[in-house]
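User: I'm preparing a small set of examples for a lab meeting where we compare how different chains pack in three dimensions. I only have the primary sequence for this one, and I'd like the structure in token form so I can line it up with the others. Please keep the answer compact; I'll paste it straight into my notes.
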Amino acid sequence: MRYLLICLAFLIIIAGCDNRKDYFKDINKTPELKIRKGGTTVYAKNLKDSMKFRNEYYLLDYQIIDEQTDLSPSLFYRLNVLQETINLDQKTIKLYPENTGLMKAVYAVSDNYITAYDTIEITVFANLPPVAGFEVTNTQIHDPLECNINAALSYDKDAAHGGTIINYEYKINTFTITSTDNNINYIFPQQGNYNIKVRVQDDDNTWSEYKSIIYTLQ
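Assistant: Understood. Below is the structure token output for the 218-residue chain.
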């Protein structure tokens, strides 16, 4: 009989602990995890962005909001098969891409009772080719047949990721000029129609397609 009473008391204690745990779980509010791209001011849920593969890492800032101040939240993330717990004293996270394609990370913040999740999807690309653009103006500064070919309209598609244009190639019929300047002055030999083409090269040594016009000099 005494043994049965001891077992019954033990079961009551366990049930009480479980009920207490369920009670705190019910009244506890889910912690909130806010993530944003490093250097920006707006937090985004399920952030989607892109980065250039040659860049070393993708930087994230995060913020944890948990009304249960007596609990210590923990934060971890999973990138492909790698899972890592994050030191909360470190307010930034660096994601290192291994190759091009989709890099997806899952973040979880837990306060002992409830876990909240957020996902990050970063499209990693190798390089985007530049685009050539130009205009021709008959400036007549030193000669009535002098023109300016201005390729400042050209741009690198991945300029937002550090890409720049380093070379400009100007073709006037069969005559070619390569320069680091985005515009040149040229004195044409005579009036008439000229096939003018421009292409540009970015800092990944990729050339754009030619932009071509028929220019009539009168």
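A couple of notes for your slides: The longest strand covers residues 115-125. The chain is about 10% helix and 50% strand.

User: Perfect, thanks.
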